[in-house]
Amino acid sequence: MARHELRPVVKLRSTAGTGFTYVTRKNRRNDPDRMVLKKYDPVLRQHVDFREER
């Protein structure tokens, strides 16, 4: 089960408040802090920041 410990599944929630989420994996060694990615929000139809939630 080492695969799940190193690369956990994380949810990325839109900071625009639409409630839209993406699901991805991240490497804990390279990114120990919470991820922030700029991705497309189809509710707003524009790119916004998505933050990792736990």
UniProtKB/TrEMBL annotation:
What family is reported?
Answer: Belongs to the bacterial ribosomal protein bL33 family.
Question: What GO cellular component is one of the record's annotations?
Answer: cytosolic large ribosomal subunit
The alphabetized UniProt keywords are:
Ribonucleoprotein, Ribosomal protein
Q: Name one GO biological process term.
A: translation
What would be the name of the gene that encodes this protein? rpmG2_1
Question: Origin organism of this chain?
Answer: Isoptericola dokdonensis DS-3
Question: What would you give as a GO molecular function for this chain, any one?
Answer: structural constituent of ribosome
Q: Which domain of life is it from?
A: Bacteria
Protein name as it appears in the record: Large ribosomal subunit protein bL33
PROSITE patterns per the record? Answer: RIBOSOMAL_L33
Q: What SUPFAM superfamilies does the database record attribute to this sequence? A: Zn-binding ribosomal proteins (SSF57829)
Q: Which HAMAP family does the protein's record reference?
A: Ribosomal_bL33
